[in-house]
Amino acid sequence: MSFFDELKRRNVFRVGLAYLISAWVVAQVASLVFDSIKAPDWVMQALLLLLALGFIVAVIISWAYELTPEGIKKEQDVLHDESITNITAKKLDVITLAAAIAVLALIVWQHLYPAANTAPSLVNSTPSSNSQNDKSNPLSIAVLPFSNMSNDAANEYFSDGISEEILNVLARTPELQVAARTSSFSFKGKAIDVTDIAQALNVRMVLEGSVRKQGDKVRITAQLIDASNGFHLWSETYDRQLIDIFAIQDDIAKAIGAQLKIKMTGLTEPGDTVAGTRNIQAYDLYLQGMGLWQQRGETELWQAIALFEQATVLDPDFVQAYSGLALSYAVIGYFSTQIPFQETMDRAENFAQLAIALDPTQPEAYAALSQVSDWQRRRVTTNALLNRAIALRPSFATAYQWRGTILMIQGKLKEALTSMEHASKLDPRSGIVGENHSIVLLAMGRYADAKARCMQVLALFPDFWGCLEDIALIELQLGNFDAAQRMFDKMAKVIKPSASKQGRELIAALTGKADKQQVAKGYASLAFDSHFDPSSDNAITSYFIPTILVMLGEFQLSLDYLERWSVEEGTEQSWAAVFPMLDPVRCEPRFIALVKKVKMHDPHFARVCGEQP
């Protein structure tokens, strides 16, 4: 008998065929199961390796051993006239046939229901309500900063700007949850897997691409990825003249809408542009300005203002450049003292109104106006302006953040928290959103949660002074003086080395090692916003000073400070009054009068005083 005949007699071929078909079925079923439970890739790889090794073992066993009525025996111990290989062959044929039927059924099922075994349905998936990770939500997307493929590294702002403009278009669609620029751009230049980025940003879809600008020509490549499985749903390369850059942005947005089966909102009409100008040089300046505005430093904001002004000279009807000016002036008073605060607000109001006059659908302009009205204590107007900004751009994280703080001083703490949670969901890697979220939790008396939220911020930005300060005050309130001292030390190192003794002196007073009254008088005499003054040794924000005075037992000094501060226009006096640490003075007639004067609602009065004033 030839070797080939012997292989047939010993059923080696039948065993191999039955094993291969059965292994294919096992691998297909396992793939579906592993995908549904989000198993790591190595689990499937390990299973395939085991199945491959199993094939070798099965073939060797079928050659060397035989199944007999008495059990498995070595083939050499079984006489040929006693062999039952023919009976075993029939059993193997039945197994092979059953496996083949299973293969056929699986192929038919995959053909009839492709979405169940390739990419999960993009339209009918239900977002998880119990998880921070929204990868199951098909209508959530992050636009990563497009790579600059130009020879000139100075064109980085251009590729960033293209990404941001696409993001802005997408953010106008109510059905689509779009991660904020702050968070999505935080991954710039980092070699991180798209799946991990999507998980960090609570999104299902990721748009990435590249930009090559050369002379008056531009090449843009974009691709949409379903991060739940790594599938590339769509990709396109555009080779156009630079003047067509606006049309490309809309084309990309339309393609994403087609893939997600939603109608995109905010697309331009023929002849219009995304940015509101067809002047390429003005648009170039605008993109540079927005990149600087995002950085929020004093120098960067003044540079952004200069660029926006140049853009409006080139195109006097460039509405988004006016919105950029409005946004810049709305916040620059908190970073710079080059001009009076009132003048910054006047300019913000002027440019916002100009932008709205040119285009009443500008969400940034309404958001800038909200900061002006809030500073003027026109609370209802502020809320309406922020609601309008959100209606125009449903994924406007900054508008949700600002609305959260205005709801807080209106005494609507639960609604404030909801708005702030949504801001954090849209912009999970923003330091200022996280810190403001912590402030709302602090106002609710949820000290542990407020600390935890700020710890998340510090994990990303270890030197973020706002959260260092929040945690220091929380630790003081809880009596954790060593932990508070560590935060004060780091605050001084980060923002003002001259304040290095401040934390130690305060803690010494609180622990009876220094004169409380003397230390309290020092705090009570501090000028408002002295933490901005480089000649001052104070690093603590003004809205925490009344709380510190109450901690030191100087209730009247705390009220004195609040009353002097209340004559100034602004909102921080209201933040100071909303913290539950001021409960010891909350029922005082002076405190009640102050609450009315700054046009806020005290959310803690009924709890502490038993009735509304």
Automatic annotation (TrEMBL):
Coiled-coil positions: none
TM region positions: 12-34, 46-65, 94-113
TPR repeat windows: 397-430
Signal peptide boundaries: none
Keywords: Membrane, TPR repeat, Transmembrane, Transmembrane helix
Gene3D superfamilies, alphabetized: Tetratricopeptide repeat domain (1.25.40.10), TolB, N-terminal domain (3.40.50.10070)
Highest rank taxon of the organism: Bacteria
Protein name: TolB amino-terminal domain-containing protein
